[in-house]
Protein 1
Amino acid sequence: MPSYAPVKPSDFANMRLDILTLFPNMMSMFFEESILSRAQKKGIVEVVFHDLHDYSLSRYGSVDDYPYGGGAGMVMAVEPLANCIEELKAQRTYDEIIYTAPDGEMLSQPMANTLSLKQNLMILCGHYKGVDERLREHFITKEISIGDYVLTGGELAAAVIADTVIRLIPGVIGDEQSALGDSFQDGLLAPPEYTRPPEFRGWRVPDVLLSGNHAKIEQWRYEQALQRTKERRPDLIKAISEK
Ligand code: ADE
């Protein structure tokens, strides 16, 4: 099991995350609570929202237009979004410019681990029928889906991506080991957890957890994780054995 020296936030370069959205207020509420808020207050991560309406070329503040070739729905136009992205790119170098889309690469723990090591990330939240394909071709470096279902907009996907990435940055979660023990981190689901009291309505905490024998506890946790993964996600076991 890897061990880490205590981390001071100042030991780490901050991550900056720029989120381009039509709904900055909806997004910012999510970041004002809990771990994401603490990570920002500790100075480990800076999250900046950009309202795409501010880049509208129309009098009405719209950034979408009818699709060429007809059909229902609107498409986010290339020029206002390109202007926003280019303004940010002129200020710093981005490790990834991410677009949230149901046809993107599926978000996974290994992907989150990789992104958590980056310094500057940008996430463009899609909406309506999506964005003009030229944006994807010329600006976007990574396209991420959070699952095989369609959301009304990319904001929830961006929030999920930000949450899973930011909590992995050293110093964000108090106990460094706890992020390493997460489900998926070693390819297995996490084992069951218990806290006090040792007995409730006759339901007892497994004796091994009260034994104080750390080697036995680790072994029990591993076996439980393996059993749980076999039962619930046999596909993960297959993936490990094929590695
Ligand atoms: N936008 C709409 N649906 C999405 C999904 N499943 N993942 C990411 N972005 C999306």
Protein 2
Amino acid sequence: MAFTINSLSGYFHEYQKSVLDPAGFWAGIAESFHWHQHWDRVVDWDFNKAYVRWFEGAKLNITENMLDRHLFAHADKPAIVWEPNDPNEDHRVLTYRQLHSAVCSFASGLRKLGVQKGDRVVIYMPMVPEAAIAMVACARLGAVHSVVFGGFSSQSLSDRINDCSARWVVTSDGAFRGSKTIPLKDWVDQALTHCPTVEKVVVFQRTKENVNMQEGRDLWWDAVVDSSVTDLPAVSVDAEDMLFILYTSGSTGKPKGVVHTCGGYMVHSAYTFQNVFQYKRDHIYWCTADVGWITGHSYIVYGPLLSGATSIMFEGVPTFPDPSRFWQVVDKHAVTHFYTAPTAIRALEAFGNEPLASTHRSTLKVLGSVGEPINEEAWHWYHDQVGCGRCPIVDTWWQTETGAIMISPLAGITPTKPAYATLPLPGVQLMIVDENGKELQGNSVQGNLCIKFPWPGMLRTTYGDHDRCIQTYFSTYKGLYFTGDGVKRDEDGYYRILGRVDDVMNISGHRMGTAEVENAINEHPKVVESAVVGFPHPIKGQGIYAFVIADLTDRTEANLKREIVHTVNNIIGPIAKPDKIQIVPGLPKTRSGKIMRRILRKIAEGETRLDALGDVTTLLDPTVVEAIIAGVEQNKAG
Ligand code: PRX
């Protein structure tokens, strides 16, 4: 495709073009794709109404650009290379031809089950190629997939199924993750006792454990696949038709369904994949994310396949069977591009350089980081030890809502600085504001990160609740999209993301709302009230600290804490498990009843001096804070 930037001056030139004439800039890129019908208008928008349209009037099917188009040039090139959890099991290779036919056969099977354009299908799968096949098969039919991360509990799953009224669920008997076997189908069964809309469940066999198959509802994957159909014509959809819904946590209430649409997301995910990673035809690219997150959507499935790349899909975890696994996989598949999260880098760094020693990693050209701020120490270890000082690091900042990478170096082109995402990609118009929404111009400023002009991959709404979309993203600062992140622009104009400024935590690169965890904790019958904050954690980036008021009359504190962890596991999943729980006699509240999280955050960070907690004059009862601090000291002593 003709849109890869190949020099720093080229970057500045393209950036300038994208700001002066956004419509012309994106139209030029969109021309590289196959459309059934051209657009009438490139972009139309009004941020005050969260109204954004790209390529309106155009018709397409994204899967033709991911599959059919590549059949002419390189049908036998590996599209997906799957590396299993257990290194002794054989890996699998699906060429573009094989993937195309697998997608068509499964799409035909789904159609026979009644799936049509616009229908929602929930996918709750391990990291096997069939997860990607199911996603792309939905897109082939113009149906909307909503992938739910396999680590979420049955209750989280049922909430998501119900929110989008899905009638189909695609899952597997179970999942292998490290030394664990996870009973996905059991969890689906539990979830479905609360999901009246679901009619059919398609079950892929992965672990071959015995599972319950409900007659009339549950079908094996192999029985659904319609192998007589290997070339199913793709359904033509509008550029602004929904492609997928992906649920993500916010600062209030339940996770919301971020909606992405077909045309803009296609253009943006492919553009950013090729430019950020400087992708070339013979590269072997590996993103270690799970398809249950946006990174897996945009940079395992859509971006790479749209670009005709070879995308590695890894079922396992970084430390199984030992902490050299990632590097073994890099050598085994001659990986050139490796994209992971800082939490994985820190976890592996903690094992020292020994696990690296048995591998050479000489094929690596580019290293990527995503999901959370990367600290300088981890950046240096990644750069110097993993990449032997040869490979540029692309620290990519973006969000579920942005759909694709927004701030990042272009590999080997943009000079990097440890812990800096560096510069905005073409088409991304950033603005830093203070709390009152006043723009902070020039360099050497720090504030809240906003975006002032639409980009093609951005969210269009939150499923079933457009007002929530307006409130969450477009109301804090008038006329701007607010990211929820704090940022610094340094003396060179480089951007460094400082982390969330709202009540969203980032636990091992996963987003988790404090309110969501509190709601789960409060479900325990002995809990009166709770307040949750994030605190710095050496591996996870942030850990979860829960301050809990509880009735301890018939339990020991240790038992209650165990039960609380169990409750959170059941309601959300293990990723929301509190790292620290402190039973407290009260919570610091203002006279109007608002919890002063600022104070709790300081205490969770380890501050025990009353006078260092900032202004406490608005507190209803300042003795509560003294009691909490005394509790911290006691915990330490105990
Ligand atoms: O706080 C930012 C952080 O992750 C948030 C988005 O989370 P999610 O929607 O789950 O998407 C993660 C993968 C794209 C952001 O608001 N974040 C993401 N990338 C970075 C980051 N923080 C610092 N540096 C990054 N490179």
